[in-house]
Amino acid sequence: MAVPTISITRVEALEGGYLRYKVSLSAPTTDEVRIDYRGFEGSAKDSPLNQQDYTVYKGNGGIYRIDTLVIPAGQTEGEIVVRARPDYLDEVDESFWLELFNPKGAAFVGNPAVVRVLGIVQDNDGTGSDLAMFVSNPIVVEGDGGTRRAVFEVHISEALASDLTLNYRTANGSALAGKDYVAKTGAVTISAGATTATVAIDLVGDNSIELNENFSLVFDPPDAIRNGHEGSAGTATILDDDTGNGAIPIIFAERATQTEGGTMRFRVVLSKATDDEVRIDYRTVLGSATDAPLNNRDYPPQTGTLVIEAGDRVGFVEIRANPDNLDEVDESLWLELSGPQNARFAGYQKVERVLGIVNDDDGTGSNRSVFVSSPTVVEGDSGTRQAVFQIHLSEVYDESLTFKFKTSNGTAANGSDYIGKTGSVTFLAGQTVAAVAVDLRADERLEGDETFSLVLTPPAGGIVKNVITAGKATIANDDDIHEVIRGSESANRLYGGTGNDRIFGYGGNDTLGGGSGNDTLDGGIGHDRLEGGAGNDRLLGVAGNDTLYGGAGKDGMDGGSGNDRLYGDSGNDTLKGDTGNDALEGGAGADRLLGGSGGDTFVFRLVGHSTVASSGCDRIDDFSRSSGDEISLSAIDAKTAVSGNNAFVFIGDDAFHKKAGELRYQHKNGDTLVLADINGNGKADFAILLDGTFNLKASDFIL
After folding, report:
1. Distance between CA atoms of 263 and 548, rounded to whole angstroms?
2. Which DSSP state fits 700?
3. Total-model pTM
4. 128: Cβ contacts below 8 Å, ≥ 6 apart
5. Are the folds of 1-126 and 131-242 the same?
6. Per-domain residue ranges for the chain?
7. What are the Calx-beta domain coordinates in residue numbering (predicted)?
8. What is the Cα–Cα distance from 182 to 514, expressed in whole angstroms?
9. Which of 369, 457, 362 is nearest to 407 (CA)?
């Protein structure tokens, strides 16, 4: 059943006033709707120690920065209130962002992980124009083909009496023009009386396993824009959707910036929701900021586990940016994520590090710093992988900045482990993120992890203030011998290498990973998690409520006793639930699904997971209404031309009526075909084959 969609628009207020956001639903519901929200800094600041510009309020009037909006059943509107703090400074108009996430009972249009809406704090001190511009930072899932777009919003803080034309161009980050997106140069006009326009950049979809990537849209602000280049660029993030399988979300962590005295919030986003909670370990890693208590500590060191609840797509890690009275350069720390459960990092990463910037608020003048990431990449046995160094500026600059770079050996050697590189990277005026990619040399040698560095030379003139201008890449070895790995009666975490491994969990709630190669994983007794990885693997849950992920390749999976969840991923897989009430999801490829005894659910998330063509059509061998079996299609949008996640309409064995969203069945050669029309052309776009003849009912499906 389709749920209502959520809408919200930008709001502005003078200093001392209130910004009242109206959050609207497209239709009332029989249950309450809950939407998490938070405010975060743009050019306006929320730290009470730094001439605070705004405060986000809870529904009861208290001060809070992460909260939940509740819209009662039967109503279609809620309100979020933000106070625009007064001051006596003659300054340009400032901005912050209100972010909505993790909706329950309703959905965002287009199903993004988050919706961000601008808040404008308009200055009311002094004379003259305070006009400012601000550009959004869109996040888009890549896709495998067709046309997807990163849509940038460009805002001005006040409406003008005449048209305002803004010239723009795209700039590479880790995403490259022509390979990942279509470069564009042009102009956009904000009409007289209006305050917003958009620029859409086409993306290039592919099937390559790669990192999440980014690029920028950079504007050339005219003299009428009083904040110059401070708000003249936005950064788009392209989330990879080729790593892992269709059932496992990809993790993206976003850089965080906070002025001294405030709380830094790292946002962690999943590319899609999952039926299981996602757990990700984290720890802080030193950058130029210090965590030592005896050395004017800039932040407290932290370790922990982030939990994103089932059905949610966003979580946060909070770190305090301690205040001080030192006039110093902007400083950095890194948040390292590792050990994800029920989600994966993009590309060939074992860990993911995301930058945190602590902006100095003491003294005068620029504190601009540059920071270089330290990527960790699994080596591989063949082909070309890359170590991508992200390069960040803590503050924009009003002219182009060029940094020279060179690679430098550590334990990894130029030529045998990586391909050395020298050159330069340029930030356009207003741009704050760029990247340098270095090719690695794969091999099958047994060796330890190796490292090399990327060293920057800042431009002359003291424009960049800090002295740590290098990042260190780690090439993680993945070569191993074929192994038999045995656990114990405790909860074990056991992982194979590149060979054809046999891994036994025995008792306890185990986690087994096959790695590459044709592996056999036996969970034994307990509630186990098995991940086959690459290769043609055999996964055996045995006893307990197990979760099995086949990975790439032609995999065979048997849940055993218990209520199990089986995910095939790519390849022509065979999934057998065995006893218990199991959930089976074949993923891409022509899969064979056998629920076994119990009331089983056969899950289909994407139209491409079971095609009309026999080469990709899934087969359910033992569908049984009397046992309580069901076919779940609720994750598929039945009407792609209509916003929201629309449910199918079951029409029995009638012919299609050329109406999008119809679901029917027909008997053919002693079997039953389930057919769906997504686009309304009267032809099937999706098919499932059931072994045997069934007169299906709507109750056989979760629509």
Report:
1. 39
2. G
3. 0.66
4. none
5. yes
6. 1-126, 131-242, 484-702
7. 117-220, 234-338, 354-457
8. 38
9. 457
Q: What percent of the chain has pLDDT over 90?
A: 63
| Res 208: pLDDT | 73
pLDDT for 63 equals 40
Can you point out the beta strands (E) in 31-87?
A: 33-41, 54-56, 66-71, 77-84
Is 95 within 8 Å of 40 (Cβ atoms)?
Answer: no
Q: Walk across the sheet containing 547-549 and list its strands.
A: 493-495, 511-513, 529-531, 547-549, 565-567, 583-585, 601-603, 630-632, 701-702
Give the number of C-alpha atoms closer than 13 A to the C-alpha of residue 486, restricted to the C-beta side.
2
For residues 666-693, one letter each, b for 16 or more C-beta atoms within 10 angstroms of the residue's C-beta and e for the rest, the string is eeeeeebbbbbbbebeeebbbbbbbbee
**Beta-bridge partners for 323:** none
How far apart are alpha carbons 53 and 83 in whole angstroms?
8
Q: What would the 3-class secondary structure string for 94-125 be? A: EEEEEEEEEEECCEECCCCCEEEEEEEEECCC
Q: Please give the structure tokens belonging to residue 368.
A: 């601009």
Strands ordered across the beta sheet of 11-14: 11-14, 114-122, 94-104, 33-41, 66-71
CA distances from 112 to 68, 142, 682 (A): 18, 12, 29
Token look-up 């006033």 returns 17
Distances (CA, A) of 635 to 139, 269, 336: 21, 19, 32
**Predicted local confidence at residue 43, as pLDDT:** 78
The helix/strand/coil state of 377 is strand
How would you classify residue 546: left for phi > 0, otherwise alpha for psi between -120 and 50, otherwise beta? beta
Instruction: State phi, psi for 615 to the nearest 5 degrees.
Output: -65, -15
CB 53 within 8 A of CB 85: yes
Virtual CA dihedral for 634, 640, 646, 648, nearest 10 degrees? -70
- CA dist., res. 310 & res. 274, Å (int): 6
DSSP output for 581-639: S-EEE--SS--EEE--SS--EEE--SGGGS-SSGGG-EEES---TTTT-EEE-TTS-S-
Write down the pLDDT at residue 295: 59
Buried b or exposed e, range 280-303, using 16+ CB within 10 angstroms: bebebbebbbbbeeeeeebbeeee
- Predicted pLDDT at 421: 96
Contact 515, 534 (CB under 8 A): yes
Give Cβ neighbours of residue 285 (< 8 Å, ≥ 6 apart): 333, 334, 335, 336, 353
- What whole-number distance in Å separates Cα of residue 690 and Cα of residue 682? 22
Return the bridge partners of 663, or none.
650, 676
Q: Give me the residues of the chain with pLDDT under 50, please.
A: 49, 60-64
Class for the domain spanning 1-126 = mainly beta
Q: Is 223 left (phi over 0), alpha (psi -120 to 50) or beta?
A: alpha
Q: Would you give the end-to-end CA distance of the chain in angstroms?
A: 7
What kind of architecture, by CATH, is found in domain 484-702?
Answer: 2 Solenoid (2.150)
> What whole-number distance in Å separates Cα of residue 291 and Cα of residue 322?
10
